[in-house]
Amino acid sequence: MAEYFNIPKIPYEGKNSKNPLAFKFYNPDEEINGKKMREHLKFALSWWHTMGGDGTDMFGVGTADKKWGGSDAMDIAKNKAYAAFEIMDKLSVDYYCFHDRDIAPEADNLKETNKRLDEISDLLKELMDKSGKKLLWGTANCFNNPRYMHGAGTAPDADVFAFAAAQIKKALELTVKLGGNGYVFWGGREGYETLLNTNLCLEQDNMARLMHLAVDYARSIGFKGDFYIEPKPKEPTKHQYDFDTATVLGFLRKYDLLNDFKMNIEANHATLAGHTFQHELRVARENGVFGSIDANQGDMLLGWDTDQFPTNILQVWIHSLSVCAWLTSLSRTAGSTSLLMTGMQAGKQALAPMLFPARLNWLILKSMHLKRAMCLLLFPADVRKCLKAFSITFFSLTDLLKFWRSYENAV
Fold first, then answer.
1. Paired sense of beta strands 191-192 and 182-185, if any
2. Cα–Cα distance between 230 and 99 in angstroms, integer?
3. What is the pTM of this model?
4. What is the CA angle 104-110-116, rounded to 5?
5. What are the residues facing 95 on neighbouring strands?
6. Considering 94, 99, 226, 305, which one is annotated as catalytic?
7. Is residue 99 among the annotated active site residues?
8. Strand 134-139, strand 31-32: pairing
């Protein structure tokens, strides 16, 4: 089989390594509280960006060749699968996510399209069995084809609604076949451009009907995972019905869907909605619907979804506090068996990788000349309780910097 990425498997070599192709801080096989870090942090490859994104924008064509040496649509799809599992192995990424149209191209009709999906999913299953990789979640691309120009579940056309339902049905079957933990709804076309020709109530009623159909069918074929809604305020639709976490919560409560759905929260979508990422995480956590994270970032000078790799270390750290507090709340509920509740020392060991995945150097904070009041703002009351439970209490910036120093020396 051809090698698609001319790099070795990325090793863990520690913070002093000079190797640019080595993990300095993340050791996927390090055990924390009886579980490897790769089990605590379930990183997943996004099939659409990693394997399919060719750099196309509204003003030009793609600038990256993502044909993977294939000569036709199905050949490209197969090679894409081989390349994906190669790079997952080399990066120690154990999960992947996909839209149905990411893994197999759409054919001239639904029957032929489903045959293509069956063929590629058989290949994915074979590669998963050999490698041990897993599917985190699946979803259906109900926004790319022109038939969805006015929505899928909210389309003013019964034929389009029926096609979307059939497409989602197949995507659910693929998710179950491949052992996925979740299924995502992202309503890029579920919204409106103007209220002058929109029956908002009817459209949302129909969208809820589609979700109920999906839940009922999925449970009937053995799907035991969570359904996720990924909030986004706009793009491509001017106003999307899944605007933000609070809006989606209202929708789920109104249509009696709350027991089956959680949130898949994306950082860039949060900022497009005028929120911070930590705001969306907090709203989801406080309402019991925290599910999955799309951990990217946007460019604050641009008004669209740029899906960049997160590079702001301080922001990553602050976001991790929200995740840590959520894990702690789970621990209080579940007793002493989960990640952060098996004693003070274990708590300290587990807390550090969760709070500081980017290993924020204490000099960064020192250079900011933070005052005590500003420092404490980084630790909301519930998070301070979490830290206190592990005898990690910060009363001043000096205490915080001492902790950074001791932590850096420890790792």
1. unpaired
2. 13
3. 0.81
4. 30
5. 44, 134
6. 99
7. yes
8. unpaired
Place of tokens 């001319």: 6
Q: Give the residue from 354, 276, 370 showing the smallest Cα distance to 321.
A: 354
Q: Tokens representing 238?
A: 């001017």
pLDDT of the chain, 411 residues: tens digit per residue = 679 999 999 999 999 999 999 999 889 999 988 889 898 888 899 999 999 999 888 899 999 999 999 999 999 999 999 999 999 999 999 999 999 999 999 999 999 999 999 999 999 999 999 999 999 999 999 999 999 999 999 999 999 999 999 999 999 999 999 999 999 999 899 999 999 999 999 999 999 999 999 999 999 999 999 999 999 999 999 999 999 999 999 999 999 999 999 999 999 999 999 999 999 999 999 999 999 999 888 988 888 888 888 888 778 777 777 777 666 565 545 443 323 222 223 333 333 443 443 333 333 444 444 333 334 344 445 444 544 444 444 444 455 455 445 544 544
d(CA 88, CA 94): 7
| 102 is annotated as an active-site residue | yes
Q: How large is the angle between the packed helices 381-389 and 344-355, nearest 10 degrees?
A: 140
- Which entry of 94, 100, 102, 242 is annotated as an active-site residue? 102
H or E stretch at 280: helix 277-286
> What is d(CA 263, CA 231) in angstroms, rounded to the nearest whole number?
8
Q: How far apart, in whole angstroms, are the C-alpha atoms of residue 197 and residue 363?
A: 56
- For 267, the enclosing helix (H) or strand (E) is helix 267-272
CA angle 255/259/265 to nearest 5° reads 90
Indicate if the alpha-carbon torsion angle 189, 195, 201, 202 is positive or negative.
negative
